[in-house]
Amino acid sequence: MTQNLKIAVLVGSLRKASITRRLAEAAMKLSQGGFAYKIVEIGALPLYNQDLEDGGAPPAWTEFRDAIRGVDGVLFFTPEYNRSVPAALKNALDVGSRAPGKSVWYGKPAAIISVSPGALGGFGANHHLRQSLVFLNMPAMAQPEAYVGHAANLVADDFSIPVEVSRNFIAAFIAAYEAWVTTLVPAKG
User: Fold this and answer.
1) Which end of the chain has the smaller Cβ count within 10 Å, N or C?
2) What is the 3-state secondary structure (H, E, C) of the chain?
3) Phi and psi for 145 in degrees, rounded to 5?
4) Are 29 and 161 in contact (CB under 8 A)?
5) What is the dihedral of CA 70, 75, 79, 83, to 10 degrees?
6) What is the CA radius of gyration of the chain?
7) b (16+ CB within 10 A) / e for 144-157
8) Where are the domains of the chain?
9) Are 78 and 87 in contact (CB under 8 A)?
10) Residue 113 phi, psi dihedral angles, 5° rounding
11) How far is CA 148 from each of CA 3, 92, 112, 118, rounded to the nearest angstrom?
């Protein structure tokens, strides 16, 4: 088994108790080992502006870029805002992709779980995010897909997923992502 692979988890919702963040916390607990998941916070990133880059990147940008640079893959959890991803998540993609030729995203295997209290499970956000990942040259896992609808009460207070079919689905998604990452990232030991 591949060991010591680091996965950054980016959560598009900034609210501490959001259903998206709660599902991210629950999903990380379903890993079968060999992977270290860590949420990389995006809420304090100043909006990307080339003028700030020219004067020396803000410390928050540098810290974020270093955090992403040091991981083997990225797992995105996003709600859907107006059929797209939240502004904070798009901003994180922009911050990490700059300066030209220095993108921290390049080649990092990615997967997306979109989350919604509604029936569609964030389908629009999931696919909109995939468009950006193609441009950033982040191979995005094609299957299985994860559109988690009716998620408002999916995760218990202890960050478990009590409903077996839901828990099994998320566990299978995490297992598939981990298997896929091991095909793209050299073994570490």
Assistant:
1) C
2) CCCCEEEEEEECCCCCCCHHHHHHHHHHCCCCCCEEEEECCCCCCCCCCHHHHHCCCCHHHHHHHHHHHCCCEEEEEEECECCECCHHHHHHHHHHHCCCCCCCCCCCCEEEEEECCCCCCCHHHHHHHHHHHHHCCCCECCCCCEEECCCCCCCCCCCCCCCHHHHHHHHHHHHHHHHHHHHHCCCCC
3) -95, 155
4) no
5) 100
6) 16
7) ebbbbbebeebbee
8) 5-184
9) no
10) -120, 115
11) 29, 22, 11, 9
Residue 154 corresponds to which tokens in the numbers above?
């999916």
Q: What is the pLDDT along the chain (189 residues), one digit of tens a residue?
A: 446 899 999 999 999 899 999 999 999 999 988 899 999 999 999 999 999 988 789 999 999 999 999 999 999 999 999 999 999 999 999 999 998 889 999 999 999 999 999 998 999 999 999 999 999 999 999 999 999 999 999 999 999 999 999 999 999 999 999 999 999 998 665
Q: Which of 89, 93, 39, 95 is nearest to 62 (CA)?
A: 95
What's the predicted TM-score (pTM) here?
Answer: 0.95
